[in-house]
Amino acid sequence: MPLSALLAAVLLLLAASGMTLATPSELPRFREAPAFRNGPGCATAPTVHIAMTLDAAYLRGSLAGVLSVLRHASCPESLFFHFLATRPRRFRPAVAASFPSLAFDVYRFDPDLVRGRISSSVRRALDQPLNYARIYLADILPRSVRRVIYFDSDLVVVDDVARLWATDLAPDHVLAAPEYCHANFTSYFTDRFWSDANFPRSFSGRSRPPCYFNTGVMVMELDRWRAGGYTRMLESWMEVQKREARIYELGSMPPFLLVFAGEVKGVEHRWNQHGLGGDNVEGLCRDLHPGPVSLLHWSGKGKPWLRLDAGHSCPLDALWAPYDLLLRDGHHDLFADV
Fold it and tell me: Who contacts 221 (Cβ-Cβ below 8 Å, separation ≥6)?
């Protein structure tokens, strides 16, 4: 029987039984996570603010990340999550259903803020407007939020996030993140950048030589960010890339390097075991870096939920699987054998 005829027959059977297929805009269903309560000594614990993004492609990863943070937190009821989404009303019910007792809010991120400033990169996912939302956290979050941890949606935390929150950014650091000074920093910018008479001078006068850092895990002092006008600095480099010269290839990360490299407060590497998704082109399997692990980050092309579903997972993807909240009730597997 031709595939089209088989699908038509299935649709007729569903109509006769009163069942309906999920529409393309309908989100997958997720199970409810366990409730997590504060442990002893949490009465004086500070509120830990965490920011993440929500979209259809990465929702499964975002919810897994939230679960991992809660599961390992000593004071989970002292956490507050700030989610940015282009369509908040679409995603709020999914978060509330999986985490009924979670303290959170969802804010609208207007893609028009960056649409005219985005240039193509080596991977299409890096060109999505929401990938640039981290630049606008200080503008979107309430002024009462003075510090926030930003997490990408392709990671899990396996340590108490309060330890990362306690990072000391005094006296005047704006941003903290694990740095990787062994990486070839020049490779993050094009030959056009390095051959220019003025562009490389942007790194002059920094506290230290510039080092690469991954923007998927950052502790951000929002008051200092606002006072220093850092959103506009990042936008300025995006405009150079878009209108003047192609100076980088990797989405929203190079502007952060241009503004902050050499001025970042270093954090232990254990807080961003990144690159587990492989490179941005092939997404091949990778091993952990040497040393202890507090956070596993599948940056790169390969995402653990996609590889697990396809039956071509990498060994480390098994460490992500216990946090997956996708509800496998057969509804979304209707055509698995067609």
Answer: 146, 147, 169, 173, 174, 175
CATH architecture assigned to 44-324: Alpha-Beta Complex (3.90)
Instruction: Say if residues 157 and 250 touch (Cβ distance below 8 Å).
Output: no
Taking residue 12's Cβ as centre, other Cβ atoms within 10 Å add up to: 10
pLDDT at 174: 98
Q: What residue ranges do the domains of the chain occupy?
A: 44-324
Q: Are strands 147-151 and 265-266 parallel, antiparallel or unpaired?
A: unpaired
Q: Tell me the C-alpha distance between 181 and 254, whole Å.
A: 15
Q: Region 253-265: what's the mean pLDDT? A: 97
- 273-323 pLDDT, tens per residue? 999 999 988 889 999 989 999 999 999 999 999 999 999 999 999 999 999
Measured distance CA(130)–CA(134) in Å, rounded: 8
Q: Which residue has the tokens 């306690």?
A: 166
The phi and psi torsions of 307 (rounded to 5 degrees) equal -70, -40
Three-class DSSP category at 3: helix
3-state DSSP call for residue 273? strand
Model confidence at 333, in pLDDT bands (50, 70, 90)? very low
